[in-house]
Automatic annotation (TrEMBL):
GO terms for molecular function: ATP binding; protein serine/threonine kinase activity. Belongs to the protein kinase superfamily. PROSITE patterns: PROTEIN_KINASE_ATP, PROTEIN_KINASE_DOM, PROTEIN_KINASE_ST. InterPro entries: Kinase-like_dom_sf, Prot_kinase_dom, Protein_kinase_ATP_BS, Ser/Thr_kinase_AS, SRPK. GO terms for cellular component: cytoplasm; nucleus. PANTHER family: PROTEIN KINASE DOMAIN-CONTAINING PROTEIN-RELATED. It catalyses: L-threonyl-[protein] + ATP = O-phospho-L-threonyl-[protein] + ADP + H(+); L-seryl-[protein] + ATP = O-phospho-L-seryl-[protein] + ADP + H(+). GO terms for biological process: regulation of mRNA processing; spliceosomal complex assembly. The keyword Kinase applies. This is non-specific serine/threonine protein kinase.
């Protein structure tokens, strides 16, 4: 069975059978997880062919990494199918900074999975612990999936996902959030393109039927003892053009920083450029931070660019001051009731609610920011109203996921 590779530098999918010839990597040419975190309490060194959980799972290739984990394609020698194996750093548990990830995933698994919002969530299949040279590692097993949305969007001109497909993806993600918030009482806190994974029937068939040898990397590993440090590659079936699949669906993944609605893991959440105003201001937050995140992601995938980047100029670094200035440029002054409950108010605003660092951004409505020429007429109006209802500075003004599912733009 043929399949395709999605690599970080690829614009279109490249067939397995058109791979470049083998090449030797040096440590300086691989840009993955921080090498210095391969230490006591850090990452576990994983090598292709390693066996885990009493020889049940055999490592095939590397799928990705994060600040607290690496993720691997593994072959389940019992079920004879490929799975995704997430290996957490040893300090993720038992060092006083435990995440809620395992408990939350078990809780989600124990809920009513017949509800429509359960399927767009990447659920836990298995879990176990593995002892290695850097400590004890919690290992989580998931369904193997296709590319994440940051890679998938590269298949389209100007990184814009077609609107009919974007509406369908938006519905699936809102169903997932409604299920998480209302049924599971969980807040994801880290919704971003990298945590939205694609699947199709062809992708599922590939992971079920393709031999492991087809997925193994062509490139030679580094010399020992660094032969565990390899490049991650996402894959998709070559039996279809996944950009135009008729049965594409998505799943929300990675609950590494998730919180309970009534118990937070940390108060500092979300990727910088997707951070909600209440998080920046220290005003307390709830499940509406996920709504803010999702609104920005839907805009980014439909328009091909972010609404806010938190930078005064394109050459600057992110700052919360610039981020708040951009938010006020689009939506006007931050509501008084939000400022009144903000711990960080005096860091950014004066007593009258004006920014301490004057904004260099002129007022600019969402209508002016939208550049998608495929949006026109009534659909453009419905889309802008939909996004405008989500991305509201005060979380009390944002609809919940269940309400947003009734939006006219999604009903088209």
């Amino acid at each position: 069975m043929a399949f395709s590779i999605l690599s970080s530098g690829a614009f279109r999918l490249k067939s397995l059978f058109r791979r470049p010839s083998k090449q030797l990597h040096s440590l300086s040419t691989i840009s993955e997880e921080t090498m210095t975190r391969y230490c006591k309490g850090g990452y576990h060194p994983v090598r292709i062919g390693d066996l885990f959980n009493h020889d049940k799972y055999k490592i095939v290739s590397k799928l990705g990494y994060g600040a607290y984990s690496t993720v691997w394609l593994a072959f389940d020698l019992e079920s004879k199918q490929h799975v995704a194996l997430k290996i957490l750093t040893a300090d993720s548990f038992g060092q006083g900074n435990d995440t809620f990830e395992l408990d939350i995933l078990k809780h989600i698994r124990g809920q009513n999975t017949s509800k429509p919002g359960a399927n767009p969530i990447l659920g836990l299949l298995d879990e176990f612990e593995h002892r290695g040279p850097n400590g004890n590692h919690v290992c989580l097993v998931f369904k193997a999936m296709g590319p994440d949305m940051s890679k998938y969007r590269r298949l389209f001109p100007k990184l814009k996902i077609p609107l009919p497909l974007m509406r369908d993806i938006s519905k699936q993600l809102l169903l997932a959030l409604s299920y998480l918030h209302d049924t599971c009482r969980v807040i994801h806190t880290d919704i971003k393109p990298q945590n939205i994974l694609v699947e199709t029937s062809a992708i599922n068939k590939m992971f079920q039927q393709a031999p492991s040898e087809a997925f193994q990397p062509d490139d030679s590993p580094l010399d020992p003892p660094n032969d565990f440090y390899v490049e991650s590659i996402q894959v998709s079936s070559a039996e279809e053009d996944v950009a135009w699949s008729t049965d594409l669906s998505v799943r929300l993944a990675d609950f590494g920083t998730a919180s309970w609605i009534d118990k937070h893991l940390t108060e500092w959440i979300q990727p910088q450029m997707l951070r909600a105003p209440e998080v920046i201001l220290g005003a307390g937050w709830d499940c509406k931070v996920d709504i803010w995140n999702l609104g920005l992601i839907i805009w980014e995938l439909a328009e091909g660019r972010l609404i806010f980047d938190g930078m005064w100029t394109s050459n600057d670094q992110y700052t919360p001051e610039a981020h708040l200035a951009q938010i006020t440029a689009v939506f006007g002054s931050i509501p008084r009731r939000l400022l009144d409950r903000s711990k960080n108010r005096d860091r950014y605003f004066d007593a009258d609610g004006r920014l301490l660092e004057p904004s260099t951004f002129p007022p600019c409505a969402l209508e002016q920011l939208s550049k998608n020429t495929d949006l026109s007429g009534s659909e453009r109006e419905e889309f802008l109203r939909f996004i405008g209802s989500i991305v509201r500075p005060d979380p009390e003004d944002r609809p919940d996921a269940r309400e947003l599912l009734q939006s006219p733009w999604l009903a088209r």
